[in-house]
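Sanity check

After download, print the first record. It should look like this:
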Amino acid sequence: MKYKRILLKLSGESLQGEQGFGLSPQVLQSYAEQIKAAQATGVQIGIVIGGGNIFRGLQGAKKGFDRVKGDQMGMLATIINSLALQSALEDNGVKAKVLTSIRMEPIGEYYSKAKAIELLEAGYVVIIGGGTSNPYFSTDTASALRGIEIEAEVMFKGTRVDGVYTADPEKDPTATKFDRITFDEVYTRNLKVMDMTAFTLCKENGLDIIVFDMDTKGNLQKVLDGESIGTLVCKE
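Expected structure tokens:
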């Protein structure tokens, strides 16, 4: 087995599926099945999910919301998504726990590194909701922070795109994909892998990132098996 413990970052927007907003039962089921299969191989899985399918603080701020309030609404959106994924996992026979970075028992237990690791080692998938609990930080930053805290060996960033490209492949048909790229090259080329705070946290703490397309069924297992279907971002 290539990895003992991973941090899986899931996009909130992907959870809306074809419907353009909210939660798609089909996507939740697909994610739950992929996570179940991955966990059955013995890997410990921590998860952080975005909230963009429900509310995005930055967009709210542009529409007149106070930025801090907007970000707090976004944090609550991530907890809604965390509960939905927990429910889908449990429906598939997987033990899952939601920990929240903001106190809100009984919705979820308050997050601590010790609690998260204890649950991971007891065979639970651990979903950490609520972002970093601070405004002005994205869920990318939350996933970098939690990945480092729980001592994950790698962050799997599951998105709708199958890796890191020289330009946005949805806008530029000539964009080519990297199989692997260094943190420094991402900086020099000014590529958008994740926001700069999150990216710097990963670089400085040696947390490699694998960007891959989570929406294609079976891809999570392929990445775990070491197939190079996404892009590995590493130190050298």
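If your output differs, re-run the checksum step. Summary of this record's structure: The mean pLDDT is 94.
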